[in-house]
Amino acid sequence: MILTSASAAALDAADPVAAAREHFILPPGVIYLDGNSLGALPRATPARLADVAVQEWGEGLIGSWNAADWIGAPARIGAKIAPLIGANPREVIAADSTSVNLFKLIAGALAMRPDRRVVLSEPGNFPTDLYMIEGLARMGLAELRLAPEEIAASIDEQVAVVVLSHVHYKTGAVHDMAAITAAAQAKGAMVLWDLSHSAGAIPVMLNVCNADLAVGCGYKYLCGGPGAPAFAYVAERHIAAFANPLSGWMGHAAPFAFADGYAPAPGIERLLCGTPAILGLAALEVGVETIAAIGITALDAKRAALTEAFAQSVLVLGAGHGLERVGPRDPAQRGSQIAFRHSEAWAINRALIARGVIGDFRAPDILRFGFAPAYVGYGNALIAAQTLAEILATKAWDCVEFRERLPVT
Amino acid sequence: MILTSASAAALDAADPVAAAREHFILPPGVIYLDGNSLGALPRATPARLADVAVQEWGEGLIGSWNAADWIGAPARIGAKIAPLIGANPREVIAADSTSVNLFKLIAGALAMRPDRRVVLSEPGNFPTDLYMIEGLARMGLAELRLAPEEIAASIDEQVAVVVLSHVHYKTGAVHDMAAITAAAQAKGAMVLWDLSHSAGAIPVMLNVCNADLAVGCGYKYLCGGPGAPAFAYVAERHIAAFANPLSGWMGHAAPFAFADGYAPAPGIERLLCGTPAILGLAALEVGVETIAAIGITALDAKRAALTEAFAQSVLVLGAGHGLERVGPRDPAQRGSQIAFRHSEAWAINRALIARGVIGDFRAPDILRFGFAPAYVGYGNALIAAQTLAEILATKAWDCVEFRERLPVT
User: Fold this and answer.
1) Contacts of B2 (CB under 8 A, 6+ apart)
2) What interface predicted TM-score (ipTM) does this complex get?
């Protein structure tokens, strides 16, 4: 289906998710297709931050750890993330960064498979996933193996844990969580799913897939703000045996007994390390609540239709200018993004931004467009496709002024 | 010197730091002696948070990583912390939690002493410092040794790194940084100083003491807010050889090249791991700027006089009720806190809080009073001493209603 002014307007008018746009603040004149890098600002967030600062911190001071339940924030927000990813509320906790949580879970998985040391991932996975494994390898605790062929076929009895992004950050391709999890478990390996480009974008079925471990990002589709706390999931059947290598005081069974010796909290709180980042958690909680209130099923249905409409429109409107579609054609096989390859991708992306269409560039030659259906509509997708087509037709990127690449994922 | 209404008023009137009180928002009627657990709210923080949320995130969106220099925040704020701790601006970075930074630096130090595995600390050190060493021990990378006697005498050629709190969290006692550092280095060991109760409270002379490594907390005397990002210091002579075991993408030499292989940033940025927590960093930056503007020398002079005036006043006004002073008598040998031991310490602390004097309890029997000289005056200290004396004289703690202990450090 190719978008036209009329069809886009009709689709927006019939969109059950369209009203959610009002729950976000976006600058006028901007079409924001980078919510897969930094989600937009929920309308309720500034007031919540002011309340946490002025009332809870300024007035309540140290007492707010109890009175405002700061101390419960990581588990409380984890429980709100849980239904978005198919977990139960006791299996998810919000804390630290995705990278730090990767370390906790990979090292913890290695400790549960003491006779194995291979951590299997794939070339081109999001870099920090690979870098965190490298860190463990430098410590002598792991051996990084990049799957030489199809993932499931690369899992053998040396593999302790498989680390994969559920949705690929460049192409948007979705791994078959159930099949890979089953294949790994058949070889005695665990699987750690990075849900950074899944959570809040597509329904994730961790427990249906019998998942072991997962991490994910708070600042993309969950709209938790720049550098928001991330989350970690450990299947309930593993929690009692799971040792967090970053065994800080907040993961202790009784942090305020101030005992010299460590004893882990019985539940998912054992995944905590240092003092919870309350300002970041407050913003994350608003983001998670905003997305959860819209409903992941409705968001997913719009995601499938919206991304496909954009892709088809670009391919028709921008035909003949060297654009190559990348990633799965079937909407069920991809996340909430569309990617194209073009030799001038970097400059084209800059030209788009100069025209108010904020997409993203991924080295060396990928144009990546994230569609956060909570605040992007069909009319936006049409303008973005038209703008891209115009840039291609006029080679408008030739006059793009040099600017530094943006640090986005 | 015992405080009286007249002497306290005269001291406040002559206090060169008194005007700084206006840079903080504190609830009326409260005497806040727990700034060593959670520093007070700087007056400028709420507006700064609103600006980051509404302008930088909401308007600037992903572009703010460059336009608002979000990407530079960890090193920029580290450089502002540096003069408070006697470091140069290239040696300090703001990131993650104190606990996570302990892990990075202890593991990194072990890697620099590959023929040694002992991490030496002392019994009763702040628990998370010990727990993080335990985590490394469980991974098979370290052996935790608690000094059986005086620290310097306990360092031998098996010790890779000594981990000590510069100011003790309960007693306020200060370790001799120069002497212990020299003693450790004479045995080929490194020293990691935890500055959580030092930074912003007393002048720290890392480079004068030829320090190796340090971490510290952002939410105590630096007034960065609940769960603020912490900081890490690596002496410049060690940076090039220092391997961060949590080698996430933000510590990469070129994070946005998205290469499969890790290569550390040349400078202190190699201590980074995940995406910087921008909301928390923004609040921390205000806190650090506020404290730095007052000046650590002036704060330190007031600290010495104020804590001593409080201690002497309590000992006289509250004499005969079982209160035992804990910690160094010489102000130069302690941090910005005063501690007493009492068998009913927990209940006394609750009775104080009920009367608007917010001190702290540390198990099993310690009353701890933190004096943040930036916003606590002599008149406050007098009222706190009088209130404590009155509670002791009337055994007013007998009617304290049970409430959960507060999660404070």
Assistant:
1) B309, B312, B313, B316, B317
2) 0.96
